[in-house]
Amino acid sequence: MTFYLKYRPKALSELDSESVRESLTKICTSGKIPHAILFSGPKGIGKTSAARILAKILNCEKPPKKGVACNKCRTCQSIAEGSNIDVIELDAASHRGIEDVRALRDAVRLSAAKSPNKVYIIDEAHMLTSEASNALLKTLEEPPSHVYFILATTNPEKLIETIRSRTINVSFKKANSDELVRSLQRVVNGEGLKIDEETLLAIARASDGSFRDATKILEQLVSEGRKLAKDEVEEFLFQKKSLDIDSFLKTLSARDAKAGLAEIERIVTAGVEVSNLLESTLERLREGLVVLVGGEGEGLPGWSKKEIISLIKILHSTLREMVGAPLEQLPMEVAIVEWCEGAFTQASTQRPIASPSYQTRTEDSQSLPPDITEDKLSAPNFPPPIPANSKDDAPRSSAQVVSEVTEEVWKRILAAIRPINTSIEALLRAARPMQFDGKTLILGVFYRFHKERLEDVGHRRVLEDVVTNIMGSPIRVICTLTAPPVKNPVEEKREEIVLTEGEDPDIMKAAKEIFGT
């Protein structure tokens, strides 16, 4: 058994996050545990462990005192092992559809089999579709007295507001060094290891505030038989850590193009994607900018506000250029040289795109981004058809940014998806682009079944990859139910005649993939 599972906290007093420990202790000892709780915070911080501890407290057969589980009875042990049939752990990433939630609602009505209460732990709750979230609302608000819900998520902002308003939120923050050392010390004592506190602090700094990552680093050191001396551990961490953002930014601050290109070559050789370096650098620059305007965080010594803003704009533009580039590192290398030599000129901003008009069903409006309203969706701004002799007929490079979702661009998207996945292409025939702002493409889907299939994680990933490649910049795709366009009776009759003349083998194959044989 791995160290993280072997030494995961079993009681509230063992929770390493001080703020969470205090908050949950107050809730449990009050005797009024809410029926719906939201655990939000980054990965590896103990959300699932805390949920299991809470489930024990709710179901312990012989609690020594209020708000504490004995960890010895059969119920406590089965919950710790994950085998208790009344504590149900669901992964919302794979149980995200409305049918899954309907099955859950039906099961909720049943009494617990062996324990006093049923506890549903829903991990990655933000992955639920909007329809599934809405279906869960009533149950969260008025659950049976024997049912408790614990929702865990790394992205609470993606949960719909009505879900958040029905839960008590317990925020899990990144662990500080003292909390990480406390967690590691439990493993050290349990395994009988000899390691000083300075070495534990070095491991804690390398774990980025994650209890799980810190424990994994210690486990790897032990499994490889390395000496747990500070110098050797730091050497191991330096070899393991592919990205040293602060060192990279010092290179850019010094305008050292040669060293900057050498760092790019180093991480490419190490097998790290350049996009990871770029995104991590942007995150660090953002934190430095926040500090300069009076916010909290770690500053960037030697950087002015003007320099940080300028570099953020450069790297943001570079991120779009990397899509479809022949060499992933090339746009980043060009940006570094231009920055170091002061030759960069800001690219023109991408203009917003008009989209076709369809009537949107109000029940799905809350799944749209806050800056996109139904008024925008219903505006009749569909771009005119492109003439056959238009310059747009010329083939475009996949790296060129496309600024409009015209009918021609939509056809290109369908054509690009067809050889990859015919079922997705068939689903998209019952959808139309509705709104595009340069970053988000809203698709109006005519039927609920088609929408749920397109929102499947695998299908959505393929769709977003193809759209990103066609448009030339990272694009997020959102599906919303909309009424199908009204057809002319003559055209509708003509379509029926064509469809009944024969069988398109690709369409038949897609239909079998969607509906089964």
Q: Over the alpha carbons, how many angstroms does the gyration radius reach?
A: 27 Å
**Would you identify the CATH H-level superfamily of the largest domain?**
P-loop containing nucleotide triphosphate hydrolases
Number of helices: 23
Briefly note the structural class of the backbone.
alpha/beta
Amount of helix = 40-55%
Number of strands: 8
By CATH, the architecture of the largest domain is named: 3-Layer(aba) Sandwich
- Uncertain segments are 344-399, 494-502
The quaternary state of the protein chains shown equals single chain
Topology:
Blueprint: H1 3-6, H2 18-29, E1 36-40, H3 47-59, H4 74-81, E2 87-91, H5 98-108, E3 118-123, H6 130-141, E4 147-153, H7 161-164, E5 168-171, H8 177-191, H9 197-206, H10 211-223, H11 230-240, H12 245-253, H13 257-269, H14 274-292, H15 305-321, H16 330-341, H17 374-377, H18 407-417, H19 422-428, E6 431-436, E7 440-445, H20 448-454, H21 457-471, E8 476-481, H22 489-499, H23 505-515
Parallel strand pairs: 1-4, 1-5, 2-3, 3-4, 7-8
Antiparallel strand pairs: 6-7
Helix pairs in contact: 3-4, 5-6, 8-9, 8-10, 9-11, 12-14, 13-16, 14-15, 15-16, 18-21, 19-23
